[in-house]
Design a protein that fits this description.
Blueprint: H1 2-21, E1 45-46, E2 52-62, E3 65-74, E4 78-87, E5 93-95, E6 101-104, E7 107-111, E8 117-118, E9 122-124, E10 129-137, E11 151-161, E12 167-175
Antiparallel strand pairs: 1-2, 2-3, 3-4, 4-10, 5-9, 5-11, 6-7, 6-11, 7-10, 8-10, 11-12
């Protein structure tokens, strides 16, 4: 009975931790955003907790994949990037931005596999649109000085074309507003 209680406790704790990691409040600018809200009309918002949220409004294309960076939120612990993708080709593209890095000053933040929301990773068939949030966590024991961040460099890995076997790196620099 003690083993069952222990397993139940660990399972409950694990689900709680994973659920907490998946919470984001960043808009993607895509079809999954709340009805009636438009990312383009969002203005910078500074929170009492020292975080910063703004509309990046960046459009970038790599190998026929349109990458639109919508809203960005910076906290002491992480950076949340809301984005939407569109495969403008008729070929399957493969892209894993949630396995990349964000670079802020001299600090490299790794994407958290369980921290984001939506779907922006994996195979994207021709003509398909996807949107979601990728979360980049500060290294253990370090914090982000939100006020000193002037730009975020995203190294999101390669966009791979399954038919042509070509790969092109998706690196985007976001000026902080």
């Amino acid at each position: 009975m003690k083993k069952f209680a222990k397993i139940l406790g660990i399972t409950t704790l694990s689900i709680g931790v994973l659920s907490a990691c998946a919470e984001t409040d960043v808009e993607t600018g895509g079809s999954n955003d709340a009805e009636g809200e438009k990312t383009e009309q969002k203005q910078e918002a500074k929170k009492d907790d020292g975080s910063k949220k703004f509309n990046a409004g960046i459009n970038h294309e790599v190998s026929g994949l349109k990458i639109n960076i919508a809203e960005v939120k910076i906290t002491k612990e992480q950076i949340q990037i809301g984005m939407n993708l569109e495969n403008t080709t008729d070929q399957k593209l493969t892209f894993y931005p949630d396995q990349g890095n964000a670079i802020v000053g001299d600090m490299q933040l790794a994407a958290g596999l369980f921290g984001g929301s939506g779907t922006v990773s994996g195979d994207i068939n021709g003509g398909i649109k996807m949107d979601g949030v990728v979360v980049y966590d500060a290294p253990e024991g370090k914090t982000i000085d939100v006020k000193k961040v002037t730009e975020i460099k995203l190294d999101m890995g390669d966009v791979f074309n399954d038919e042509t076997m070509n790969a092109e790196n998706a690196t985007i620099t976001i000026p902080v507003k």
